[in-house]
Amino acid sequence: MRDRLHDDRGAAAVEFALIFSLILAPLTVGVLEYGRAYAAQLTVTNAARVAARSLVVTGSATQARLAAVTAAVGLPNPAAISVAGLVPCPTDGTTPTRTVTVTYALPSLTGLFPATSPRGTGAMLCNS
User: Which DSSP string corresponds to the chain?
Assistant: First the structure.
């Protein structure tokens, strides 16, 4: 019985488990933060595309902004998005392209990483 109390077998496995958990936790948090930022980037890009289409179809900057906010439903606070480039199409017969840019200040989930600002751009050709 005395020999069993002083046996070192299994100590390496316990040390590995302790160290591995300390390494795995930040890696998991990093993957979650990156995935969240990537999903926000996709959402913002889609919102810009929807806003550009709405601007070209309706000709209203207010409707285009509303369309962008509606399309950004997956963001924590969709009303906080910033929409730029809401200039209606010309009526002189030319067919230029309208480009809308949507930005969003995405706060960090854990505070371990800096906040990001995903920006998406959508462009649509005006109706002739």
Answer: -HHHHT--TTHHHHHHHHHHHHHHHHHHHHHHHHHHHHHHHHHHHHHHHHHHHHHHHH--HHHHHHHHHHHTTTSS-GGG-EEE---PPPSSS---EEEEEEE--B--SSSSS--B--EEEEEEEPP-
